[in-house]
Amino acid sequence: MKNYNFKVKNLANPIFKFLNSRVFFHAYFYSVFININSYIFSILSLDF
Questions:
Q1: What is the 3-state secondary structure (H, E, C) of the chain?
Q2: What is the phi-psi region of residue 33: left when phi exceeds 0, alpha when psi lies from -120 to 50, beta otherwise?
């Protein structure tokens, strides 16, 4: 039973790593996107 759990863990590990990196990337990209949007919005509000 211990060996079986170890095998499942080894199979799931790269999947979890991929999901974690993917989620991290999306969160980072989203925060950068929000920052750019707020920056553009501040420039527009200065113009008007």
A1: CHHHHHHHHHHHHHHHHHHHHHHHHHHHHHHHHHHHHHHHHHHHHHHC
A2: alpha
The string of pLDDT tens digits covering residues 22-45 is: 888 888 889 999 999 999 888 888
Question: What is the distance between the alpha carbons of residues 46 and 19, in angstroms, rounded to a whole number?
Answer: 40
How far is it, in rounded angstroms, from Cα 11 to Cα 8?
Answer: 5
- Residue keyed to tokens 């989620």: 23
- Percentage of the chain exceeding pLDDT 70: 94
Q: How far is CA 47 from the centre of its chain?
A: 34
Q: Which long-range contacts (CB under 8 A, 24 or more apart) does 11-18 make?
A: none
